[in-house]
Amino acid sequence: MTQDNRKPLDTPEANGWHWQTNILHPDAQVPAGFAAMPVPVARASTVIFPDLAAMRSLDWRNDSQWRYGLHATPTSMELMRRLAALEGGKHCLLFPSGLAAISNVYFGLVKSGDDVLIPDNAYGPNREHGDWLAESFGITVRYYDPMIGDGIGALIQPNTRVIWIEAPGSVTMEVPDVPAIARVARERGVLTAIDNTYSAGLAFRPFDHGVDISVQALTKYQSGGSDVLMGAAVTVDDDVHHRLKQARMRMGVGVSVDDCSLVLRSLPNMQLRFEAHDRAAMTLATWLGTRHEIAAVLHPAFEDCPGHAHFRRDFTGAGGLFSVVFDERYTPAQIDAFIEGLRLFKIGFSWGGAHSLVVPYRVPSMRTATPWPHQGALVRFYVGLEDVRDLQADIEASLTAHLGA
After folding, report:
1. CA 118 to CA 148: how far, in whole Å?
2. For the chain, N or C: smaller number of CB within 10 Å?
3. Is the dihedral of CA 341, 343, 348, 352 positive or negative?
4. Number of C-alpha atoms within 13 angstroms, CB side, residue 69?
């Protein structure tokens, strides 16, 4: 009969602790000499301090100190470092979504009695947030012509604190004169914040043009997989960063480090994907411009797109997003039928992934400061990574089936 030499689980180990305690307090360390390409995933809520002096010396302004998993771990800090470097910034904060990053700018920089300027082509939820602030928080919110350029100076009031910019507008695609707006704002002591999601920080570097804050939805190209929700706010000024960081802490905002690892995994190939989206979108947009069903193609790289000169001067690419305006003879029901007749273009909002998307918009109802010059329906396309020949055939088949030959 074989003798059983196994120790009972309640027998102390060599260090004097029992099995359950050793499971909770392992002497686990990464072996010296181990290295790998992926960024390690450091999950934590509680952060351990070596002693009370270290805990009591914490300064929330010091980004190099570990305080609590909600604020940062090595994984999320590495993503913030890379995103700041991508846009030419100094600091970065992460948020659960792009809209959360926009909200944090408001709550960090604006109070009751202040004034905010938002472009008329802004991302819809940003407008809704502005309206909410005006209705419930005693903040004045005004909408301006995105093509105003240095004329923005006439709108700045003594209580104006933030001027939002969107370049280009994510639906109507106007490209504002960002340097002119930023220059006038800085001369008047007003902060500028740009929604830079369209360019992913690859095709437009806002801090080179005088902008103070760059907000992005990392849900888009940075993720690339249509499976992560995250946002970022990048800054260069220490005081602005601290004001945003304090608001983020007070609202208890944090992100999953597992999601951070997914974004970190996608960053190395983001430029290749962005350029592929750009090439395919240009091909489709150029072809759609020849179709009799289309009254206008709204693509910043096209000469007749408002602000094209600014695009040529300031941008290095366009990515996969553009809009078209259909001839006004087509009814809303026909446009809906065309969209629902597409097989490869799926109906959905959050672009930036590998799959092509399409969404209709009622633009006149979205604008309050500037008239919309087109009468036909606007449809926004996001061009994914499918073969562009198949995407063109998909559009052509639905145009023929639902709008006539």
Report:
1. 12
2. N
3. negative
4. 13
